[in-house]
């Protein structure tokens, strides 16, 4: 049982540097960046960058992407691209033997292509929805202005929820700030009359204290999740899980996808090892590894304010990954060089 806590601690430790650095960067962006910089982080190359980052065998990137998404710094398509491309422990296992390379390499290639396809489809859909929402909001605002000129303030507030093209830095705080003190401090802060001590304290709170506390909170949550799922795997056993998945035949992608949803690197280990030894079909491996996003789901559930959005992201990941796995199983395996 002691190994469970040690493994959970080591897995959590791997995420720490990525999360800490990204939280410092996020703070700088939240208080210093303008709308153009924020848009660049959700630009047309974002899903491509997300896919490239996700390939790296480190679940820390899925956590970082989740943090950025919950603050709406990246688009949904970018998050999906990172999640699907995330390989976690698959690459190390693949590189450990020649047999692993020949079998898992097609899985990685499929994951990369699929991440780009899903990422850009979601990216385009989201842009179209945003344009339609903005157009509807503008039309509604124009009608309200014509009929009720005294409700100008209401119109401004309505457009604030739908239009991110404001250049005012404090407006960006309202949109992107994930903590209430961002708004409060922006309202109370008087930079012109502040003393050097007050300015130094503000810099410390914004750029050091806040990201450290935020990182500590998320890391603790990740550790707890790792311990819980580590205990579950310890008592159930990776072998039993592997045998159960391997006995499901054509429906392997369905169960492999459920295993992939487990927010722990143990899921990718079980799926990859089972596939390498021949206990899992290519479709099952693709489904499980495409769904798998490491600890990202756990952080998404904790950090994302919209429960519906969280459920939507997880549901989309599961459905599209399982569907791909079922299609692959229905095709001749010779197509994939196996």
Please render the helix and strand layout as text.
Layout: H1 2-32, H2 35-40, H3 46-55, H4 60-70, H5 76-85, H6 90-95, H7 98-147, H8 152-162, H9 169-176, H10 180-188, H11 196-236, H12 238-246, H13 252-260, H14 265-276, H15 282-291, H16 296-303, H17 307-330
Fold and architecture overview:
It is a single chain. The chain is 78% helix and 0% strand. It has helices at 2-32, 35-40, 46-55, 60-70, 76-85, 90-95, 98-147, 152-162, 169-176, 180-188, 196-236, 238-246, 252-260, 265-276, 282-291, 296-303, 307-330. The chain has 17 helices and no strands. Helix 1 runs antiparallel to helix 11. Mean pLDDT is 75; it is low at 164-187. It has one domain. With 338 residues, the protein is mostly helical.
Quick synopsis:
The chain is built from 17 helices and no strands. With about 350 residues, it is an all-alpha fold.
């Amino acid at each position: 049982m002691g190994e469970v806590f040690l493994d959970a601690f080591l897995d959590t430790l791997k995420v720490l540097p990525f999360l800490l650095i990204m939280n410092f960067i996020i703070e700088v962006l939240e208080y210093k960046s303008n709308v153009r910089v924020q848009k660049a982080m959700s630009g047309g190359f974002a899903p491509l960058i997300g896919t490239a980052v996700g390939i790296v065998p480190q679940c820390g990137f899925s956590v970082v992407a989740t943090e950025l998404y919950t603050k709406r710094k990246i688009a949904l398509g970018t998050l999906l691209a990172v999640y699907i491309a995330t390989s976690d422990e698959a690459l190390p296992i693949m590189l450990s033997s020649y047999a692993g390379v020949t079998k898992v390499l097609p899985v990685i290639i499929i994951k990369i292509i699929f991440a780009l396809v899903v990422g850009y489809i979601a990216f385009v859909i989201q842009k179209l929805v945003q344009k339609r929402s903005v157009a509807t909001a503008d039309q509604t605002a124009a009608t309200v202005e014509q009929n009720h000129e005294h409700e100008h303030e209401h119109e401004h507030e309505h457009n604030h929820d739908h239009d991110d093209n404001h250049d005012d830095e404090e407006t960006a705080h309202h949109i992107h700030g994930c903590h209430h003190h961002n708004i409060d401090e922006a309202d109370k802060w008087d930079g012109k009359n502040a003393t050097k001590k007050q300015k130094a304290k503000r810099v410390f709170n914004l750029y050091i204290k806040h990201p450290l506390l935020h990182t500590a909170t998320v890391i603790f949550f990740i550790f707890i999740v790792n311990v819980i799922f580590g205990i579950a795997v310890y008592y159930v056993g990776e072998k039993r899980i592997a045998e159960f998945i391997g006995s499901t035949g054509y429906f392997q992608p369905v169960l492999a996808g459920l295993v992939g949803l487990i927010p722990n690197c143990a899921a990718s280990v079980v799926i990859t090892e089972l596939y390498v030894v021949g206990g899992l079909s290519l479709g099952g491996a693709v489904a499980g590894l495409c769904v798998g996003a490491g600890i990202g789901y756990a952080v998404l559930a904790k950090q994302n304010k919209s429960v519906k959005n969280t459920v939507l992201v997880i549901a989309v990941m599961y459905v599209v990954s399982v569907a791909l796995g079922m299609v692959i199983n229905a095709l001749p395996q010779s197509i994939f060089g196996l």
